[in-house]
Design a protein that fits this description.
Layout (H helix, E strand, L loop, with lengths): L1 E5 L4 H13 L3 E6 L14 E5 L6 H10 L2 E4 L6 H6 L1 H22 L2 E5 L30 H21 L3 E6 L2 E2 L18 H11 L3 E4 L5 E3 L1 E2 H13 L8 E5 L5 E3 H14 L3 H4 L5 E4 L1 H4 L15 H7 L7 H15 L6
Bound molecules: uridine-5'-diphosphate (UDP).
Length: about 350
């Protein structure tokens, strides 16, 4: 099988490509604007990488959509600070550029595996979000945070419609706060405050000895999912035994790993202090509270909780997440200690 992964250097892309090359005989064709996370892939004869941009290298992409069996467009901005500060960039990349790829899959009859997002459920009040039944609940237009969710939701609907009217074969997957090695780069740039996802934001603060900031008190909850669990599920989705996963949507998350952002901060701080290399750094971060308006800006609105139902993944794919939160955080932190031992991150 030949898999095209656009955004192969991203957090999901690089881990998926590495696993495919390790555990299967499939070939991976990958494009990205960077290649710094591809150390486990480069040099493998079944890995074909080209440095490129999905908005520029259109001929290469069309040729490879034609050539491959499965297409995974993973290029997207997925950090809330950018939804608020640059909503048009989010719309352009996450919606418009990806729509072009969807249309190429329709044109060449290729199977599309598309990353939807847990954000599409928005402020849904269901205890567990169900792929086929839960309502998708977004805030007012002036709250620009929702541009990402709305862009992804519309693409989900467009893909669904292409399946319905043009027989596009697709599977949508919705990651719930995946964490692990190579998640985001650590940053110390105050201009970029909040520009990483929460786990890497907190790890950056710990390495720099700067305060960990809990937005609006940190009582909002998330279910954190270890990358290896997510990749296990994606491999089975790519395999698609008997074509049973076509036209389906899957949450990929760990409902057992729910924590408040405040708990997350204290857990990470404790794990950081316990780590054997922490003594050399001599850093100490206090945990403080900040208002979301100051941290993100006016257009931010939070999601208080989001728990996935993973029943469908269990029933249809035979998949369940295995890695508990403490292990997931420990492994994530260990990666940053190993790759980023200097305090000037
Ligand atoms: N958050 C926080 N401090 C930070 C970064 C994020 O309290 O330094 C909060 C944020 O307001 C949200 C949660 O952590 O409620 C998760 O944020 P993330 O950026 O990981 O994305 P989300 O889960 O909202 O998509």
């Amino acid at each position: 099988m030949k898999i095209l992964i656009l955004g192969v250097n991203g957090f999901i892309g690089n881990a998926l490509a590495a696993r495919i090359l390790r555990d299967t005989d499939w070939e991976v064709f990958g494009m990205d604007i960077r290649e710094d996370k591809l150390d486990l892939c480069q040099g493998n004869t079944r890995f074909h990488f080209v440095e490129g941009d999905i908005s520029i290298n259109r001929e290469w992409i069309e040729y490879h959509v034609k050539k491959c069996d499965v297409v995974m467009p993973l290029v997207a901005i997925a950090t809330p600070a950018t939804y608020v500060r640059e909503p048009l960039r989010v719309f352009n990349l996450d919606f418009e550029e990806n729509l072009n790829i969807v249309r190429l899959c329709v044109k060449y009859g290729k199977r599309l595996l598309f990353p939807s997002t847990s954000e599409v459920y928005g402020m849904c009040t269901d205890k567990e979000f169900n792929e086929d039944e839960s309502n998708l609940v977004l805030g007012p237009i002036r709250m620009q945070r929702w541009i990402y969710s709305a862009s992804k939701q519309l693409l989900d609907r467009v893909i669904w419609a292409y399946g319905f009217q043009k027989n596009l074969k697709f599977t949508l997957f919705r990651p719930f706060n995946w964490i692990g090695p190579k998640l985001d780069e650590l940053t110390s740039d105050p201009e970029k405050e909040g520009s990483s996802r929460v786990v890497t934001q907190f790890i950056s603060s710990l390495f720099l000895g700067e305060p960990i900031r809990l937005v609006d008190g940190g009582l909002q909850r998330r279910c954190f999912t270890y990358i290896d669990d997510g990749i296990d599920c994606l491999i089975k989705i790519i395999e698609n035994k008997d074509g049973r996963l076509n036209g389906e949507i899957f949450n990929i998350g760990n409902p057992n790993n729910e924590a408040t952002i405040k708990d997350l901060a204290y857990k990470l701080k404790a794990l950081f202090v316990e780590h054997s290399s922490a003594k050399n750094l001599n850093r100490s971060s206090e945990i403080i509270e900040v208002y979301s308006k100051e941290f993100y800006g006016e257009g931010y609105q939070d999601i208080n909780f989001r728990v996935p139902s993973v029943k469908k993944a269990k029933d249809l794919i035979g998949w369940e997440p295995k890695v508990d939160l403490d292990t997931a955080l420990k492994k994530t932190l260990a990666y940053y200690f190993d790759s980023n031992p200097k305090p000037e991150c």
